[in-house]
Design goal:
single chain; 5 helices; Glycoprotein, Type 4 Pilin; alpha+beta; Dna Ligase, domain 1
């Protein structure tokens, strides 16, 4: 897993650099590890790191699981999307790439949380371990990665509120059992410094 994570982070950075220089999307390398040809959810997260300042989020986009798309292809697509298609931020430009750290989160398959009383969510969800996906109907869907509530200092109720808002629902939509909440885990690999050493930040 460590090697695969490092491989994907390096691939994501190479994808971004190539695209910003030439507008060309690279193809999956022929020498890629076989396990990266499986289908799996993945997110690519970019932070800008200026000396002495707290890292600033510059983009985060991914795929829960794309039918017919391999983990390596989803990483390539997500890296480009996080760079130029995250509507919350201006596009990343080539001149700032040496101040950007790249993070890749490999997701487990989301598991529906079944409860009779919404307060039971508090006994099941583990901050720092579980990512959440909120879904209502076939259109409204929102996802937050496991590291988000830790970075934001949220408790479990705030976490549920925010994932519902991410899905375009009211913050308390999780009280409605017609809103489905899924949990998943993530293997988070990140550059410690821009284009620097890559470490496994979390095994959950």
């Amino acid at each position: 897993m460590q090697y695969s994570g490092e491989y994907l982070v390096k691939l994501a950075r190479r994808t971004i650099e190539t695209y910003l220089k030439s507008k060309i999307k690279i193809k999956p390398p022929r020498d890629a590890p076989n396990n990266l040809m499986d289908q799996s959810g993945v997110f690519v997260t970019l932070h800008r790191v200026d000396q002495g300042d707290k890292p600033i989020l510059r983009g985060c986009i991914g795929r829960i699981q794309s039918p017919g798309s391999t983990l390596i292809q989803s990483t390539i697509d997500s890296a480009i999307d996080a760079t130029i298609h995250d509507y919350r931020f201006p596009n990343v430009n080539l001149s700032e790439l040496d101040k950007i750290t790249v993070e890749v989160t490999i997701l487990t398959v989301p598991e529906k949380i079944i409860v009779k009383d919404p307060k039971e969510y508090f006994d099941i969800i583990q901050i720092g371990r579980h990512g959440l996906l909120a879904e209502h109907g076939s259109i409204q869907r929102g996802l937050l990665l496991p590291q988000v509530p830790v970075e934001q200092g949220w408790n479990k109720e705030m976490y549920l509120d925010h994932v519902c808002q991410k899905a375009g629902l009211s913050s308390k939509a999780w009280y409605n059992l017609e809103t489905t909440i899924y949990k998943f885990e993530g293997f988070i690999f990140s550059e410690l410094t821009p284009n620097g050493e890559i470490k496994l930040k979390s095994e959950h």
